[in-house]
Design brief:
With 316 residues, the chain is α/β, with parallel strands linked by helices. It has two domains: 172 residues, 3-Layer(aba) Sandwich (Rossmann fold), CATH 3.40.50; 126 residues, Orthogonal Bundle (6-phosphogluconate dehydrogenase C-terminal fold). Helices cover 50% and strands 12% of the residues. Strands 3-2-1-4-5-6 form a six-stranded parallel sheet, with helices on both faces. Helix 4 packs parallel to helix 5, helix 7 crosses helix 9 and helix 7 crosses helix 11. The structure holds 1,4-dihydronicotinamide adenine dinucleotide (NAI) and 3-(4-hydroxy-phenyl)pyruvic acid. The site of 3-(4-hydroxy-phenyl)pyruvic acid has 8 residues, from loops. Pathway: Amino-acid biosynthesis; L-tyrosine biosynthesis; (4-hydroxyphenyl)pyruvate from prephenate (NAD(+) route): step 1/1. This is prephenate dehydrogenase. InterPro entries: 6-PGluconate_DH-like_C_sf (IPR008927), NAD(P)-bd_dom_sf (IPR036291), PDH_C (IPR046825), PDH_N (IPR046826), Preph/Arog_dehydrog (IPR050812), Prephen_DH (IPR003099). Belongs to the prephenate/arogenate dehydrogenase family.
Length: 316
């Protein structure tokens, strides 16, 4: 078992936790909740029969079904772990099964749109505490999850004004038990910050890999053959799930376009510095960005070595 997670709790935090969507994130929560005894019963719901069968084979949940109403019945905590574009549809579909006092949460990479989609479907007496674990990989599906995914990573909660404080505290306790550092902010602020720290970097990766592949003078073979440099890191990000990322961009449109505007201005300045041989401008920028990377490493949020080995060892 991984050393960095704490021991299992003596008593579970929740009686019955239902996870909807058992991909990378949902299956990692299932593994961590099981390992740490955060729920007496873990229920898995997924629209895909194949995923439900795989969850049963892996034994990472106590019950697994495609029936969302049956799956959420009697749950104390329901976490939507589906692409952000279907959160509203899932909320509407599960509504009749939710019991009063249930807490609904999610893990979506975008927050304002998810709140707008989900909240109208929740009955009186059900609290919604939106969450975003800022932790993941380019892999998806139930086999991609691992027990330590959230350890020493941030989880951002964006409860709308008026959300029951006790519900927020229980969701915070759940993420802290999985090793996350929890921060609370508004959904709008979250979406702006994540646009520049996560969404636009993914767009740049998709773009650069797409452009390189399209270049007539560079064959596909050469792109792969010479990808040992910086390009290789972009190909990892650009391998991320197409459905998930399509939804992220369509549901955080304004913030992403705002940040792309800023980025275009700065790229024009860099192009100008290169054209006019302004080496000091390039050097100053690269010095500042190197300090940012070193700050991330010394804060313990990233290992200096490539991630792949560590994540494989962490799998459980
Ligand atoms: N992949 C990542 O690195 C991170 C993803 N997230 C967020 O987590 C959520 C899930 O992402 P992943 O786990 O990576 O996706 P995934 O693609 O690995 O899993 C999604 C699962 O949802 C199921 N699903 C899709 N539509 C459904 C529906 N209508 N009803 C029930 N199940 C349905 C799929 O069958 C699949 O098993 C997304 O909202 C994403 O923005 C958050 C942090 C990191
Ligand atoms: O794989 C990577 O480098 C990621 O950036 C993972 C990731 C993807 C989406 C999120 O909302 C949070 C984290």
């Amino acid at each position: 078992m991984p050393e960095r997670l704490g021991p299992p709790r003596d008593t579970p935090l929740f009686e019955r936790v239902t996870l909807i969507g058992l991909g990378l994130i949902g299956s990692s929560i299932a593994r961590a909740a099981r390992h740490l005894n955060l729920a007496r019963t873990i229920v898995a719901v997924d629209a895909s029969e194949a995923v439900v069968e795989r969850v049963k084979e892996l034994g990472i949940a106590d019950e697994a079904t495609t029936d969302v109403v049956a799956g959420v019945r009697d749950a104390d905590l329901v976490i939507l772990c589906v692409p952000v574009g279907v959160c509203g549809t899932v909320a509407e579909a599960m509504r009749s099964g939710l019991k009063p006092g249930c807490i609904v949460s999610d893990v979506g990479s975008v927050k304002a749109s998810v709140i707008a989609q989900v909240q109208p479907h929740l009955p009186e007496g059900v609290s919604f505490v939106p969450a975003h674990p800022v932790a993941g990989t380019e892999h998806s599906g139930p086999d991609a999850g691992f027990v330590t995914l959230f350890h020493n990573r941030w989880c951002i909660l964006t409860p709308p004004d008026g959300t029951d404080e006790a519900a927020v505290a229980r969701v915070r306790a759940f993420w802290e038990a999985m090793g996350s550092n929890v921060e609370v902010m508004s959904a709008q602020h979250h979406d702006l910050v994540l646009a520049i720290t996560s969404h636009v970097p993914h767009l740049i990766a998709y773009n650069i890999v797409g452009t390189a592949a399209d270049l007539e003078t560079v064959t596909q073979g050469e792109v792969i053959k010479f990808s040992a440099g910086g390009f290789r890191d972009f190909t990892r990000i650009a391998a991320s799930d197409p459905t998930m990322w399509r939804d992220v961009f369509l549901h955080n449109r304004e913030a992403v376009l705002e940040m792309l505007g800023r980025l275009n201005e700065d790229i024009a300045l860099l192009a100008r510095a290169i054209r006019w041989g302004e080496g000091d401008k390039l050097f100053d920028l690269f010095t500042r960005t190197r300090a940012i990377r070193r700050g991330i490493i010394s804060s313990g949020q990233e290992t200096p070595e490539p991630d792949f080995g560590r994540r494989r060892e962490d799998k459980a």
